[in-house]
Amino acid sequence: MQEQLLDWYHREARDLPWRRTRDPYKIWVSEVILQQTQVVTGTAYYERFVERFPTVQALAEATLEDVLQAWEGCGYYARARNLHAAAKQITGQPFPETYEGWLALKGVGPYTAAAVSSIAFGYPKAVVDGNVRRVLSRWFAVKEPSDHWLQTTADEQLFHADPSSWNQAVMELGATICTPKAPKCPVCPVKDFCKAYQSGNPTAYPAPKVRAEVKEVQAVALIVGDQHNLYIEKRPEKGLLGGLSGPPLEQVQAGETVEDALKRLLDRLSVPDAKHLGTTEHTMTHRHFVVRVYQAEADLPLSASTAAMSKLDRKILRLLQEKQGALFG
DNA sequence: AAGGCGGGGAA
DNA sequence: TTCCCAGCCTT
C-alpha cells in the first residue's frame, strides 16, 4: 500500500508553490493559510503573503494592521493574528524541529505541527486533516472515526523513511482522487487496499457530520463620507472579524427592532439622523447577515479606506458606490 | 464535547 | 442548494 501510494504521489503530485521550497517559514505560512481554505483559493494568498513578508523576521517586525491587510479576504482572521504573534515569539531563534516544538506556537494545532515538522524537518508524525480523515475512514471502512482513532491509525501507517512525502501523498489522494462526492475509484492507485471500495459504496464513508444551522443576523451600518474617504472603526480583536476595520455596525439584539439598533448606532456616534441607502446580505459559514445600510453627513474623522476590511464591509461600501453610480448612470 | 470563527470551490 | 475545505481556540 505504501509503495503504491508513494509511487503515484511522486508521479502525479500537483506542482504547488510551497512544494518548491524547504524554508520552514514558508511551509508554516502555507499550512496556516490552508487551514480550512482550499488549495485553489489559498495559493494566491500564499504568494501574496510570502512576497510581503519573506522571512519570519519581516513578519515579526510588521504591524498587525499590515499583516491583516495581507490576509484581507482570506477569512478566519485569528489565523493571521496568531501567526504574527508566533513569529514575534520565535524570531531570532532557530525553528523548532519536532512536533512538540511546533505545537507550542500560537495557532499551531495537531495538524499544523505534524505538517510543518514532517515536511520541513522529516519528523515522524502523521497529519490528520479532512482529507486524511476521509481516506482512513474509507481505507478501513470506519464510518464515524474518532479523533483519537484517526491520529493513532495515521501514526501507525506513517512511512517512516519519508514522513514528508507520505503525509502529502495521503492528503493529495484525498484532495484529487478520494474526494467527498464522486471519488475516482477506478483510477485510485490503492483501491485494492480499500475496504470502502470493496463494500461497493465508498461515499457511505465517512458518515456526514451534523452541522449547525446558519443563523440570521439583522444589523444596521452607517456610512459617513464616501467610499474613498470615510469614517471607519476597528473591531475588537476577539470575536467576529476581530482586528479588522469597517463602517460602524450594530447588530439587532434579541427583542430589539431595527429602529432600536439604528438609534443605538446613531446615539453612539452623536449623529442626529441618517438616510436609508439599501440592504445588503452576506453569508458566512454560521451566520447570514442582513444589513440595512444608512448614510449621514456628520463631523467625524474621515480616512482613506486602506485598512483591512472583510467581505461584509466591502459589500456595505459597494452599496454606496452603486447608489452614486446610479446617480450619474 | 460543542460552538465560534470567513469565504469560496465543486457538484 | 449542499457539502466541506491541508483547523484552532475557548468555554
Automatic annotation (TrEMBL):
Its cofactor is [4Fe-4S] cluster. CDD domains: ENDO3c, NUDIX_DNA_Glycosylase_C-MutY. Pfam families: HhH-GPD, NUDIX_4. Gene3D superfamilies: Helix-hairpin-Helix base-excision DNA repair enzymes (C-terminal) (1.10.1670.10), Hypothetical protein, domain 2 (1.10.340.30), Nucleoside Triphosphate Pyrophosphohydrolase (3.90.79.10). Its EC number is 3.2.2.31. GO terms for biological process: base-excision repair; mismatch repair. It comes from the Bacteria. One of its GO terms (molecular function) is 8-oxo-7,8-dihydroguanine DNA N-glycosylase activity. Residues 33-176 form the HhH-GPD domain. Keywords: 4Fe-4S, DNA damage, DNA repair, Glycosidase, Hydrolase, Iron, Iron-sulfur, Metal-binding. It catalyses: Hydrolyzes free adenine bases from 7,8-dihydro-8-oxoguanine:adenine mismatched double-stranded DNA, leaving an apurinic site. Binds 1 [4Fe-4S] cluster. Belongs to the Nth/MutY family. NCBIfam families: mutY. Adenine glycosylase active on G-A mispairs. MutY also corrects error-prone DNA synthesis past GO lesions which are due to the oxidatively damaged form of guanine: 7,8-dihydro-8-oxoguanine (8-oxo-dGTP). This is Adenine DNA glycosylase.
